[in-house]
Amino acid sequence: MSGQFFGRAIAGLMLGFPLLSAAWAEGVTLTATSLAPDGEWKSRIAPLFVTATNDGPNRAGQLVVRAGTYQMHYPLDLAQGAQKKVQVWLPTEIGARPVVAFEAAGYGVQIEPDPIDFSRSWGANDTRLILGISDNETDIRAWRTSNSQTLDESSVTVNMRALTQGVKPEDAPDSWLAYQGLDYIVVGDGADRLSNEAVDALQKAVISGKTLVVPTGASAPILSDLRWEGWWPARAGEPVSRIPAWAPRFALTNAPITERPLEPLDGEVVLDGFAVMGKRGEGRVLLMAANPFEPGNAQRFAKSEMVRKLATLREMDRDAGRMSLDDVADENMQVKPPSFNLVLIMLVTYILVVGPLNFLVLHKMNRRELIWVTSPMISLVFAGLLFAQVRIPATSGKSSVIVGMATVDPLSEEMMLMGRQRLFFGQAQKEDWNLNGMEALWPISSDNPMAMFIGGQSDVPAELIDTGTLEAKGVTSNALQIRQFAFAQSLPWNPQNLVVERKGGGATLVNRTPFEITRVQIWSGREYMTATGIKAGASVKLSVRKIQEQTATQPKGAFLAIFTPTSGTFGVQNDSNVKGELVMAGRLVEVQL
Asked: In angstroms, rounded to a whole number, what is the distance separating the alpha carbons of residues 63 and 75?
């Protein structure tokens, strides 16, 4: 009897194991990939692509990204058998290993993706990060090099390496911010099949400071893609097979190669005619006469030669998200922490004055009952002095300071902005944040003078939700709280808002923007033009001078302007009291009257 019972129990367990195993497998699995070559990234915010697969019942939940006190929510509904890919954002310099979780009612699963490290490799001894977008996404590996001593065009020895990553056109990101950590983006076979969103993102990435490399050679359908009309700095002719004039520059063997003659339009011929480079916004488009990835060509070009040649070209990549709040002049910033010693002296003095000294004076006057009046008054005086030292407006509402860089170009009706914002809350409040045009918002190293008193509280609100549009509803902030963060934003831009009008030998800048421009510098070939104090809606005659022959020139319309932000435009837009300084750069419209 007992033997039969024991046997049935064993059989039941044996039958039960597969059932338990199947139940365990029925759930959501997460995988993550990134664009960061070898986990290195030259921006403080990086994209991560999370694929969620649901082998269990229908689940309505959200992806949550956590790193330290930072968290971002991405609503995600998964039907049974569904697989969805979601782009999320990871801060790269927060000092905590990120976690990505899927959370639903009574259910949760999480992964720890490979870390993405902020690369501090700049200058001559540099690491170049390259993304290749091609049907043959492994082609870009031909440009990958380890640390090696090379010689640049000025005979200076440098120690440079190149790290690469490849994606297929259908996997190209559709956000311009997703390309910010790269040095070069190379578009190859299949680039004409990029989605409209990916093309728009690449164009914005160039305007914001990235370098787009476009090989041509025997076949380049992207050249006739109307979505890129006006973007190429040269007109490419029909392909021909010959020994090109630029062959010695790359130490190529004495054999023909397929190339296209390039007729410059608004670009600069570089590398003995191998390419034409044109400025677009703050970035560059490099149109190549040949395709180093065509069959047989990868073996002919020395492995490190292409990247080394690219490194010698004049580039102006910028990432205003790296700017420190204290990089801007004090008179524009209006916010700077006081010295610790000064604050300590003020606090000690306050304790002595409001306590013993106040009591002794009133006791001597035989008016001790006035202590209930004098103590609050003394406290208010010291609070005012303290806020004056911190240089933060002690208002009952909210005020902010913004610094950063905006980039524009006549080819685009959008302005790309990367910046930092510091918000001060005079009183406790709960409100919806206006995040119009925000691509992302992330924490930064705090120079908050009150940071030592707020412990682990994040400057970035925990209520952030990304539904394709960034939202922050019901954000709770404490009285006298300071929040500080970085952000990326896209805003409408009319290229006719800032125009250089030429008439005769003179030039006038017309400022149709709602901002006062503190000063502006404009280049046009060998002409250099400047102006200061241009009111919103005003015009001013430009001071024009010639650039010396030995000085490098800038393309026509290149400019750099400094202006004061206004309320309701940049960053979190709920506040009315805005200070700070923004840089605007790129290209502006130039017309001949």
From this structure: 6
